[in-house]
User: Fold Molybdenum cofactor synthesis family protein from Mycobacteroides abscessus 21.
Amino acid sequence: MIVASTRAATGQYTDRTGPIIVEWLGAQGFRVDEPVVVPDGEAVGDAIRSALGASLVITTGGTGLSPTDSTPEQTAALLDYQVPGLADAIRRSGLPAVPTSILSRGVCGVAGRTLVVNLPGSAGGVRDGLAVLGGVLGHALDQLAGGDHV
Assistant:
């Protein structure tokens, strides 16, 4: 679980999204350490690379249009292939309440047998994204582990 935020990494504010994701993952039966908070940029790619091998890596933040937002690029460079339908569904989930949710550039994909999911950096965007992910996560991880298309 990786938080991409220069401001949170430098102590300018306390991240609120990481704890939401950690709590959700725990409720799903995952063993999760505290969020890894890193500044935007190459540190995001380094943190994702270090987490590969887990069944799931979720990032939050760094998916917008700001010149410093590079989580999608850092993620895409590590993926074997993308899962665009999942990223699109996450964007659409916030659309009714937050029209700007479609500006998220987050990607989802697979690196080895690890599902990597970029979520927005807002608490609402994270909750919306987790609601989408919850509906497909078991099936996705089963397929990545070699299960059948049931």
In short: The helical segments are 6-9, 17-27, 42-51, 71-76, 84-94, 123-144.
